[in-house]
Every structure is written in C-alpha cells, then in structure tokens.
Specification:
The chain is an alpha+beta fold and 240 residues long. The chain is 32% helix and 25% strand.
Length: 240
C-alpha cells in the first residue's frame, strides 16, 4: 500500500478520534441530566443543572465548542414549546450578539425569526437522534440562530424509560475544526477534502475547493471513511 494511502488512514482516524471526544463529553452530560433532573423540573432548575456542566466547558480558552447545552422536549417541562438550556461561548463581532467575552445564554425571546423552532421535532438535530436513539452530526451549515457562522452540531438523545426527554448537544465552528484537523490532513501530502454524507465539504487542503462546496466524488471508491462519523476523506488528485 502506498505511503499516501496509509497516511489517509491515519488522518481519517484522527478525525474519528476528535468526534469521539465530543461524543464522550455528550455521554457524560446525558448522564448528568438524567441524574439531576426530576420528572417535571422547572425551567429555572433545568437551566441550573445544565449550566453546571456546560459553563466550565465554554469558559475553557481551549474549548473546541462554541455552543452547548440541553434542549428539552415540552413533555419534560410541561411548557407549550421546546425549552433551550443553551449557552454560547465567547464570540467575535457578529450580527446577533456583537462581541462577547464570556458565555452567554441563548434567549429565544429576543429573536424575531424563531418560528421554525415550533416544529423542532422535524429538525435534523432532534429528529435523527429521536429515531435512531444515537448521537448524530448535523452539518456543516450556516447557523443563523446564534453565531451567523459555519458550524456542525452534534446531538445525543436523552431518554428516560424509553421516552426521549430532549437532546444534549454542542455546536463547533468549522474554522475551529480546521485548526484541529489541518495538520494531519496536510501531512498526507495529498490534496484532500473532508465531506459529509451529502458531499458537503467541511475541511479542504485543496485551494481549488472551498468549505461549504459540494464535492462530486464524495462516494468515490478512493474515499476513506472516518471511524464513528458521517465524514469521509476524499483525495482531489489521483494517488500515485
């Protein structure tokens, strides 16, 4: 097997390892929600429970995530709508929040464009974990609700007695993933794109292919799956 192909396997494993870290974090948060949340919590109590594990993560200067929390089904709180116990980490200047220096709680009451959340069960980050009972990666996509930037969202179902009471999740900037993953991708010495199941490019080492583009060869036989993720590494030139 050529060295470049072995390097691709190593790079794919590192992508898988990064997302495995995220999944491990969500597994711990899921257990915390189940352990510390009564059958019918108040929203204030729920926020306090979630803040206890989310805020230390977002306060870490080296944090991988930019948003994190728990999104409760109406059945849990007895409210008429979904409840977001969700915080954003420090942000550069953006059209929604401006610049922030510490974690900020998402306040849907200040948003004039959140009607689509009324049908949240149809949204991918909730619908897929509910149907599969597994962690799911949504994106990459532009987050118009919070960051106005390119992100991926990872969500895990929180289930009690066979019933989903919500999801724990994180948002990660694509530009943050680039910083984590580019060294191993560049070490392959082969122009590559990291794509999702739809061929949407997450990270690229090929200057002719930009993140966000759709790559036509996402299902190419040369694509290398990244373990435990929906992503593949696809060479954009022929391997020697």
């Amino acid at each position: 097997m050529p060295d470049s192909e072995m390097d691709l396997d190593v790079a794919a494993a590192r992508v898988g390892a990064l997302f495995a870290r995220i999944q491990d974090t969500l597994a711990g948060w899921r257990e915390a929600v189940l352990a510390d949340t009564p059958e019918r919590p108040t929203t204030a109590a729920l926020d306090a429970t979630v803040a206890a594990f989310v805020l230390p993560e977002l306060d870490d200067p080296g944090a991988l995530v930019i948003g994190a929390g728990f999104i409760a089904a109406p059945e849990l709180t007895g409210a008429d709508a979904v409840h977001f116990s969700w915080w954003l980490g420090p942000l550069d200047e953006n059209p929604v929040y401006g610049a922030t220096t510490g974690p900020t709680k998402l306040d849907l009451g200040t948003r004039s464009y959140t009607d689509y959340l009324r049908d949240f069960r149809s949204l991918e980050w909730y619908r897929v974990p509910q149907s599969t009972h597994r962690t799911h990666v949504t994106g990459p996509y532009v987050d118009h609700l919070c960051t106005c930037d390119y992100i991926v969202t990872v969500t895990a179902p929180v289930e009690r007695e066979g019933r989903m009471i919500g999801v724990v999740g994180v948002d990660v900037f694509v530009k943050r993933l680039e910083r984590e993953l580019l060294p191993s991708l560049l070490a392959t010495r082969t122009p590559l794109v990291l794509v999702n199941d739809d061929g949407r490019v997450l990270v690229s080492t090929d200057p002719a292919v930009l993140p966000g583009a759709v790559h036509a060869e996402a299902r190419s036989p040369r694509a290398v799956p990244c373990p435990g993720t929906p992503f593949r590494l696809v060479p954009t030139t022929t391997l020697e």
